[in-house]
Amino acid sequence: MLQIPEVTAQEGSVAKVRSRAGTERAIFLAARALLAEQGFQGFGINAVARRAGCDKQLIYRYYGGLDGLIEAIGADLGTWVKDRIPEDTGGMFLLTYGDLMEKLSIYFMEALRDDPLVCKIVAWEVSQDTPQVRRLSEARTKALGKWLDKMRGSLTPPKGVDAATTNALLFAAIQHLVISAAVSGQFAGLALKTEKDWDKVGNALRRLVRAIYG
Fold first, then answer.
1. Per its UniProt record, what PROSITE patterns does this chain match (predicted)?
2. 91 near 80, Cβ under 8 Å?
3. Paired residues of 8 in beta bridges
4. Residue 89 has pLDDT above 60, yes or no
């Protein structure tokens, strides 16, 4: 089906032609970027329209306003883990539950470092209790749980280990380190600025997982 291009106006520049799909995508990416940079304080129809280079009426037409944009971002977060973290094991043969958690912990840390918006959402979860934050948090948490269940398959933790609590602590620690790195570049005197710093964190994380799961 042929899409009819539409003209969108970008502030301070020549008007340009975009398809509907292109405009929707530009609006979505602009909204996501604004949330990552400024949080909900800078998240408004006019700001999104300026960033996307379109008329603000198109945001209402395609998304129904800010609530619709939040829903779209939440839906994207629902596939965040699946889209950004590989389901293969990088050639590593998983024999034990410890093998699995070692690999997944490193994957999760690297994916979180690469996504400023998800880092912001993790920080908001412990500092803001609003319907918008809850909506985004629930989508992210549900996706993470599904991903862990799928990757685990038939592997089981050693007897006597409370895997649910242990894994929650591991992932919470990873999240806190990544957020601290974004805010101050360190945590408790541990530098978190260079790839060498993060290699040290990765090695310590692997040793910690092995100490717990064998």
1. HTH_TETR_2
2. no
3. 16
4. no
Helix count (H) and strand count (E) of the chain? 10, 4
Check: pTM over 0.85? Answer yes or no.
Answer: no
- Are residues 187 and 142 located together in one domain of the fold? yes
- Helix 97-113 × helix 116-125 angle, to 10°: 100
The model's confidence at residue 12, banded by pLDDT at 50, 70 and 90, is very low
Report pLDDT for 11.
Answer: 38
Residue type for position 200: K
Is the domain of 62 the same as that of 97? no
Please return the burial class of 93, using the count of CB atoms within 10 Å of its CB with bins 0-12, 13-18 and 19+.
exposed
Which domain range does residue 48 map to? Answer: 6-72
3-state class of 47 per DSSP?
Answer: helix
| Number of structural domains in the chain | 2
